[in-house]
Amino acid sequence: MAVLRIGFLGPSGTFTAQAMARFYSGRDYEGVPYAEIPELFGAVAAGEVAAGVVPVENSLEGSVNVTLDLLVRDPAVVIVGEVILPVVHHLLARRPGRFTRVLSHPHALAQCRAFLERELPGVVREATTSTAEAARLVASADEPWAAIGTEEAAERYGLVVVARAIQDSAENETRFVVIGREPASRTGKDKTSIAFSLRHDRPGVLYAALGEFARRGINLTKIESRPARRSIGHYIFFIDCEGHKEDAPVAAALAAIIEMSTFFKVLGSYPRWE
User: Annotated active-site positions, please?
Assistant: First the structure.
């Protein structure tokens, strides 16, 4: 059997790499790092890799907007799986001491805001493309810098863990989605993600859309909105519900919402993370 090439938000040592390892545990695969989420989407769409793993939401900071936007815009890519990973952030450096700059992914910096304000007030915070890239930059710079990242990144780049578990909440989790070109098979323990924009010609249309799920006993696990990148007041709604798009109740609810919508897309039906 050929080795699966799986893209992930790199370099090695990121939480996305950990999510990939958990999802593909026991399978023969090769991780292919990409520096940016749009680049990874493009690689999946072009068939450079069999699938890709990207972050989509965090329990503290909410959704990863670039991932949501690309799921809507890219017609060749669908969600085929998900992983929910506990996230523990550490402060990494070449050596303990006073730091002039802290580097990390914007979400990691935000998830550790209380620690940074309390322990490193006034220290410049610099955003990087990933937590592992932050560790690499700190390791290669002859400056009193620190990074927020994983213990794996510290080991990989020769850094020490200066402070452990610095995230603002012990219940910090990130949800990752696995993206591919072919829809996932129905398993009986599935989730469906959709995106849609509603017509503006009558009041209560969002209430009516949600009611299509409620009257069929379908549990919603997520609902949020994003600007539709048009005029003020136009939004794209994102909903995750339990069940597969081929399940009769889900199929009926989706058909009803299509009738209310000016835009509709099934982002994927895929096995729920247990």
Answer: 174, 176
For helices 65-73 and 37-46, give the axis angle rounded to 10 degrees.
Answer: 30
Distance, C-alpha 146 to centroid of its chain = 24
What global pTM score does this model have? 0.85
Q: What is the DSSP code string of 76-88?
A: T-EEEEEEEEE--
Nearby residues of 98 by Cβ (< 8 Å), 6 or more positions away: 144
CA distance 60 to 111: 6
Question: Of 97, 104, 101, 99, whose CA–CA distance to 167 is shortest?
Answer: 104
Burial class, 208, CB count within 10 angstroms (exposed 0-12 / middle 13-18 / buried 19+):
middle
Half-sphere exposure of 28 (CA within 13 A, CB side): 3
Supply the Cα-derived Rg of the chain in whole angstroms: 20
Structure confidence by residue, pLDDT tens digits, 213-235: 999 999 999 999 988 776 666 78
Helices then strands, each counted (H, E), the chain: 9, 15
Reference 134, options 86, 91, 189; nearest CA is 91
Q: 55-101 pLDDT, tens per residue?
A: 999 888 889 999 999 999 999 999 999 999 998 999 999 999 999 99
CA–CA dist 194, 237 (Å, integer)? 8
Nearest to 242 by CA among 194, 204, 209, 202: 194
